Amino acid sequence: MKYKYILFDLDGTVSESAEGIRTSLEYAINTLGKPLPNLDDYTLYIGPPLIDTFKNLCKFSDEESELGSVLYREFYNSKGKYINKLYDGIAEVLAELKNNGVRLAVCSSKYEAFAAEIIDYLGVSDYFDAICGSNLDGSRKDKKDLIPYAVKALGGDIETDRKSTVLLGDTWFDAKGARLCDIDFIGVKYGYGSIGDMQSEGAEIFAETPADILNLLKDNS
Hints:
The strands form 2 sheets. The protein has a 6-stranded parallel beta sheet, with helices on both faces. Strands 2-3 form a two-stranded antiparallel sheet. It contains 9 helices and 8 strands. By secondary structure, it is an alpha/beta fold.
């Protein structure tokens, strides 16, 4: 394999989770008695941090965004996270990577405990050496902060292991984080994000399907 440390975004890369996220957002917005924005475009709220979604998409104040986040997490934890499934073929990809001795981490803006519970629910926790997400207070939500954290959790150091690290993701948010951390990025076309938006953040390599990921990670030199 070309890399020692392979980081996977969760929503739209490992799991099909849009319906559960949308349902949880609708619950939080409706509970606060706020107008429901058009949520048909998943790219607007899958990938970016939750607090940013409430501020930018819902036009909530800081206080409303904090309350909305609490309501969202309460519903998501009890119901939303179970409206979720693995992408076809992703388990086989993870198994093959694990058999090749690379270190794997989930690198998600989702609250870390939720990410760990989802990975366990999906039945792929044995493939990952670390589950890395944001804190409950919303800190460590940006990929530029999550990536060094994930590399460290895998036993590396971002300062010396940049060339040995790659992030796989489906949104411009993922591509931007990889660019800012100066690591390689592979975009997945089967997720929720826009290919053009990822390209605008420097993405050049894309996987059409989960099965394509293995070939892109192999060292063919």
